[in-house]
Amino acid sequence: MGNKSGYIYVLLNYSMKGLIKIGRTSKNPEERVEELSQATGVPTPFILVYMEYFNDCYMAEDQVHLALEDYRLSASREFFEMSPNKAIKLIQTLKQSEGEYNPENNNYMKSDIKNISEIGEDLYNEAEDYYYGFGDRIKDFEEAITLFDKAAKLGYYKAYRRLGKMFEYGKGVKSNEKKALQFYKEAIKHGEIKSNADLAFLFTKTPSDLFSLDNARKCWDRYFEYISEHGIENEDKVILYEYLNESTQLGNEINYSKILMIYKDEILDVIEQYIISVRENYPHMVNKLEKLKVVVQNNFVVDEDIINDFQGRVIDVFGYQGNAVLFVEIISGMITVGTNVQISKGYSTKTAIVEYIDKDGIFIHQAGAKDKNVSLVLMGEPRENYQSYLDAYVELYAEYV
Q: Which residue from 23, 200, 298, 396 could staple onto 219, CB 3.0 to 4.6 Å apart?
């Protein structure tokens, strides 16, 4: 779309008591009023009671309509059951946020309607309640995503980041990484710097058409540059932990060590909290977290013990003679037939024994990083038990004592 500038107008019609019409036009609003008044079925002419110019009248109209949704008669019509004063005050507030409104002799009292960003924040908080099931809200991802979308359109741009995560992980919608990418980019465009980290993680997921270590590095560069100048918030502590965890899992070099050193204690605190939270129900995760703690204590230098641990990532799941087969990308280390493995995706884990290892149609006794991709046939495990484990990590499993 080309030039988006134009006017938002408010109209009255004496034949439509209690109603106002709020719309947009790229032409002179007086001309638009004349057109509408000549339409068949309109017994009396419309009266222009207010107009305001916007650089982007399309966005302004969307924001006004969303903010006044409770007053709207029909989603397909531009008529609202309300006083024109409320609508005018809202439009003036929106214009002020554009940085251009400078009223002269303004007789309006302070608006009794919240400004646009406050309305967006309220919608965002309501969406969070539905997302997590807080208070008396029933957990409802579909309602949450609707409210996040409205909040974003009303200028509460943190909502774009939340929408990105919901599309990435399929919460309330079908998983769509390309849509997630667009939402993360929109969040960054409006100052949500943390979405650089979201993009970086997205670019290192496999299998994925978006996989790009180069793009991931660029996103991390932007993220770390920002926190080096502005410091971190609580959520950044978790992001730093996740960056460190992924780097060691993928066998990547740990960059940005100077910045990480500044927040060494904060990262250790996050790891300790995770250890406490998983020790009782997921004891097999403790060993990995303890090793990650050693990396931090060693000033972010990865020792040979961690480098040599086997780790793979599940690319596909299929069946062989009734058993589940995991097609795995080997990231590091060696694996041998008869080995106990742990398959982990988030907090969901399974353990199994590797009965066979297949490399290009040939059964082999062991495999390592040089083999790149192999198929692991799991003993006595049906395929359907592992359908949800695409992109999961595969590691050697030992009981925690």
A: 200
How far is residue 272 from each of residues 250, 261, 268, 283, 291, measured CA to CA in Å? 22, 17, 6, 14, 12
What integer is the mean pLDDT of 260-264?
A: 96
Q: What is the pLDDT of residues 60-104, one digit of tens each?
A: 999 999 889 889 988 778 899 988 888 888 888 888 776 444 444
Q: Is 382 in a helix, a strand, or coil?
A: coil
pTM strictly above 0.70: no
Separation between Cα atoms, residue 33 and residue 37, nearest integer Å? 6
Q: What number of CA atoms fall less than 13 Å from residue 229's CA on the CB side?
A: 6
Tokens for 171, please give them: 């919460």
In 292-389, at which residue ranges do the beta strands (DSSP E only) sit? Answer: 311-320, 323-332, 334-336, 340-345, 348-359, 362-364, 366-368, 373-378
Q: What is the pLDDT of residues 338-370, one digit of tens each?
A: 888 889 887 778 888 899 999 888 888 888 777
Comparing CA positions, the residue from 213, 225, 214 lying closest to residue 188 is 225
DSSP 42-96: -SS--EEEEEEEES-HHHHHHHHHHHTGGGBS-TTS-EEES-HHHHHHHHHHHHH
CA distances 137 to 73, 129, 173, 312, 315, Å, are: 27, 6, 19, 40, 37
